Structures are given as C-alpha cells and as structure tokens.
Amino acid sequence: MKNQINIWQEFAKETDGTFKEGYSWRSDSTEIEYKKWKITFDNFTVWSGKYSSETTRIIVPLTLSNNFRFEIYREGFIRKIEKIFGAQDVEIGYPEFDKAFTIKSNNEFKIKTLLQNKEIRTLLESQEEVNLMISDQKGIWEEKLPESEYELSYFIDGKIHDFETLKSLLQLFKLILDHLHQMNLIS
Fold this sequence. Notes:
Layout: H1 7-15, E1 18-20, E2 29-34, E3 37-48, E4 51-63, E5 70-74, E6 88-89, H2 95-100, E7 101-105, H3 108-114, H4 118-125, E8 131-135, E9 149-157, H5 163-182
Antiparallel strand pairs: 1-2, 2-3, 3-4, 4-9, 5-7, 5-8, 6-7, 8-9
C-alpha cells in the first residue's frame, strides 16, 4: 500500500494544487486555486441502501448573479440524481454534440451562449462520461446549500487514474468559469 501512487497527491504536484489528506469517510483530494475560485477534485462513495458506488467528482463553489442552472450529460447514461426542477431539453445547433449529449437548463439562451465555445464542446466530447451541472446540493449528493450558494459540479463513475483526463477536466472547468464570468453569470 505504501508504494501505491496517491493520484490526488501527484495531481496536486502536477498542477501546483494543494493536496488535502482525507479523514473518516472523506477521500484525499486536490484543491486548485484558479483566479478567485477553488476547484476541488476528490472521490466520493454514493450509498444506496446496502450498495455503494465509487465516483470521482470535481466541485467549485459559485456565487451566481442570477439563478442560471444547467445539466449536461451523455445521452443514454442512467441518471443517478434528479433532474433540475423545471428544466427543458435544449439543442444548441451542433448536430453531433446535440446527438451525444442531453442538455437541460432553465435558460436556453445562456446555455447556448456557453456552449458556443468550441473548446468547451471539444473538451466535453473528449470525455467518455459526462455529468456536469450547476447544483444547489453540496458535493452533488450531500445537503442542500444555503440560499444563493451553488456549485459547478462534475462526476463520473469510478476513480480516474489518468493524469491527462484529469488535466483535460481541469481545463474544461477553467474555460467554463471564465466564460460564465464573461457572461456576468458568476462573480
């Protein structure tokens, strides 16, 4: 066990992030400061009765200037969380992307504006599994966040052990944060 590479410790070194040792039921994690945001990568075990599922998740606390919400996931993926209340399926006008992903949002114009960014679409398309959202649940499956607090969140079944995948997801988060900030949706 001592010789096993700790992915979060190595990823922190690779990205100039901060390694945080886990405790109790919390996994180790990597925290990366990006501008005024803190991007956290960790593992989380989702419990359903006596069954559990290990996931990798990425979380960034946000302050929204309005209640813009979205959820993007690969078409056909069996959903493990409830859909955003009142959300509609959105097509953004890129047939291959629209075919590959289900997009839900409470503001069609804003999600289309966000996904006009080719680099964001390309990074999403490069991921085998995509579950990306703005959520009002802490850590996706934990308690509801206080009023007007949100998280940009991503999760995937299993543990990610590939640095290139993790770096690609980090780049995706940075682009989304920058774009949401440029759109005056987050401060």
